[in-house]
Amino acid sequence: YALLSARIPIIKLKDPATGISADVSIQNDMPVFRSQLLLQYTRIDERFRQLVLLVKDWSHARAINNAPHGFLNSFGYTMLVLFYLQNTSPPILP
After folding, report:
1. Dihedrals φ, ψ of 21, to 5°?
2. Among residues 4, 52, 54, 92, which is most buried (max CB within 10 A)?
């Protein structure tokens, strides 16, 4: 279905066989930049990816990963993990 009320129009897809969801947008470079940045952090320390996946699973299990309902989205939880790993003593990520 199309999500036309978003700042940037998005088409949301879900594979019924696997349950995998995807969002498709056009002429929006920011998600590509974000993905590249997160890949670089993962290359620095694989624990970043592992902790992000753990936090995302935790938030989904508690139904608190839903931005339209006032919660953080997956990217927000990813940023919280990044902030935590940058602010531990000693920092794990730059």
Report:
1. -105, 150
2. 52
Cα separations in angstroms, 65 against 21, 29, 38: 14, 24, 19
SS3 of residue 3 by DSSP:
strand
* Cα dihedral: 79, 74, 53, 90 (round 10): 10
Query: 40 and 46 in contact (C-beta within 8 Å)?
Result: no
DSSP letter, residue 75: H
pLDDT in tens, 21-52: 888 887 788 888 999 999 999 999 999 999 99
10 phi and psi angles, rounded to 5 deg? -130, 140
Per-residue three-class SS string for 20-47:
CEEEECCCCCHHHHHHHHHHHHHHHCCH
